[in-house]
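Supplementary Note 3. Input sequence used for the single-chain structure prediction.
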Amino acid sequence: MSDIAGLPVDDKEAEPTIEQVVKGLQTVIAERNGFQGDMENYDDMANADLLQVIERKRGLPVALGLLYIHAAERCGITITGIDFPGHFLLRVQANGKRRMIDPFHGGITLGPAELRELLKSFSGLDAELEPRHYRPTSNVDILLRLQNNIKVRALRAGELALATRVIEHSLLIAPDHEGLWHQLGALYARLDQDHMALGAFEQFVMRCDDPLHRARIEAVIEELRERLEREVANQDDPTGISAPSESSDQSHSDPQQKSNAPIPLFPDLNS
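The predicted structure, written as discrete structure tokens, is reproduced below.
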């Protein structure tokens, strides 16, 4: 009997040890096929595109982690994605033992000392390991984390249309994710697609449990509706000559008249 890397197993009736399982993943994915993290061009958008990662054999931790998960599950190996702060990790289990491995660095094993150092490098020197740092992540959350990496890079590059498409695709995976609807509405608003922004924000409000946040976005929705109504009125009366209305009288006398200035959005898109 042998493991996935062709390594011998001492007892033909026994399962591979945790060490043999980890070594098998390292050998097949990192050594034989050359999949590694792209440390030279970490922020390259190709590192978050799974098809390009497979072709280039370079990528981000979460993209490479998907390859480890797929290979392990095909071989009956218990493996779980770990939502570690700032750096996606994997937990492998065999014969009642567990190991944390880093897909970005060839599947190397990380013990408590290495994990603590990794956490401090991302969260600050005062950070200490807690149970929540070992929180497993679902397949849907892994895909969303990968999409989020693409979205963040698109926003940094000022490619708002691309970021919008990424969120639209993410909503196909998680249609009830309130944060995605909020981000989509904000991007539509920045792209001057008020009608689309209105629909996205309405979807957000339907799903939001935070009354303060919901109230803020309801105010944005109201402003969007007023803006769209003004646009329709202007189309109906292109000359701009219309009977004065109560609202128009107020607008002329009110120095704080609303304009088409950008709508304030909450929270920051990069969060």
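The first helix runs from residue 18 to 32. The mean pLDDT is 86.
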